[in-house]
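Reopening this ticket.

The earlier resolution said the output was attached, but the attachment link was broken on my side. Pasting everything inline this time so it's all in one place.
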Amino acid sequence: MNDLTRLLIDNQDIKYKEFSKKLIPDTSYPIIGVRVPTIKNIVKSIKNNKEEVFSFLAGKHTYYEEYFLHGLLIASEKENLSWVLDNIERFLPFIDNWAICDSTVSGLKIFKKNLPAVFNKVKVWIKSDNPYTVRFAIVTLLGYFLGENFCEEVLSIAISACCEHYYINMAIAWFISVALVKNYAQTVKLIESKTLPKFIQNKSIQKAVESFRISNDVKEYLKTFKI
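Inline output:
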């Protein structure tokens, strides 16, 4: 057992373990029960120790928290995009749940400075047979390509992933609800068209209605397009 895995086990919280098992039912990895702030503190404490980081990333993992830490360690690199993308490619097949997927994406601040290269990767990831690679692509679009970086292709790529997988469809609905906040004029046309699958259409509207960033008048308007 490596030192980082031992450190994770030393920070086990049994109550949080039971909570996590309910929150993340899609993972096949055994859960230790380590709170996210604790894992983030571990990242901060070792991210500049490249030898330790590289050793951990190259090793085999057993626990959910090891994979969670793995994703955050990749994301902690702020300068070397090539290294980040290479490590993401190796890591994606091991992501089997929404939490590791989303936490890794949210930490990848290096993406902000390299949007064209990242966008090209998204167009590959979105076509993957691995549902969590597809979700990774959608959450990347949500996190880095809405607002001033939005274009029609961003929307079309996201909705091209519509399928029967719950965690893909939830990501698409989440994406659309945020797009309604940041790029309303372009996105509302999609809602008005009622061309989305019923689940995604209604879930997108539900999430938008729950948002405090959308006016009550717009919420009432969106409700009229439920299927």
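Reporter confirms the inline version is readable. The mean pLDDT is 97. The longest helix spans residues 166-182.
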